[in-house]
Amino acid sequence: MRTFIVLSAWLMATAFAAPFFFDNIYDYSDELAEFYSKVSEYIGDAKDVHTATRTCDPSKIALPAFASGLPSPGNQKPLYVAVGHGTQNYSCATSTAESQPVAIGAVASLYNATCIAANYPGMLDMLPNIAYKLQLPSNSWATLPYANLNLLGHHFFEGATPVFNLDTTSQRQYGIAFTTKKAQLSAPSSAIQGANGAVAWLYLTTITGTVGDYESVYRVDTAAGSPPKTCENQPSVITVPYAANYYFFGK
């Protein structure tokens, strides 16, 4: 019965919290309706104590089928899954049509969706779609409002190196992954495009400096994040909101 109680509390919390954090909520109520419908389905399933999931087992986590276009994690174990919500950042040499945006990294908060990925995978791909339409929180340490997901860490770049810092507090020391991009895959046509398209799905591997058992990171289920085609009438730095799911694999 514990699963039923937890899910019920979660649904009530998200239902009451959502209107305070969404902007123009009625413009995209379909995504929220689908999300809440899935939660309700799982609550119904959890009423049967013989079939209810009692644990959060990361070994059950699997990448989405579309990620088969990226290298496989092989024998690596799934460690965490996070919803990333932030901005993809680009620079413009000039504000003319002759100049094109150049990627200069990303900044995102990472929210722990590991147990959703393990126990309720049918809900996972909806999370970036909804997160993208949330306002970026003023407090980068806050929980993700609509699902009350705890902060797992922060994603940023050191120079050209993508970094995932999962050491958020003295009690939550989950390591740091320094990575390099090894492969990419264009986002599916079903992805939320935003103004200029969804950023690619990525396969990254860890490099020297990594703390912890991390060996690879996948960015999947991307929503928006691509820059305009040219820098015409753009500032010197362009920040484009995006969201994605990040899968961490390792030893």
From TrEMBL:
UniProt superkingdom: Eukaryota
Statement: the UniProt record of this protein carries the keyword Signal: yes
Pfam families found in the cross-reference section: DUF2990, DUF3455
Species assigned in the record: Aspergillus turcosus
PANTHER family named in the record: CONSERVED FUNGAL PROTEIN (AFU_ORTHOLOGUE AFUA_1G14230), MALATE DEHYDROGENASE (AFU_ORTHOLOGUE AFUA_2G13800)
Record keyword Signal present: yes
Taxonomic path: Eukaryota, Fungi, Dikarya, Ascomycota, Pezizomycotina
InterPro entries to which the protein is assigned, alphabetical: DUF2990, DUF3455
Name under which the protein is recorded: Malate dehydrogenase
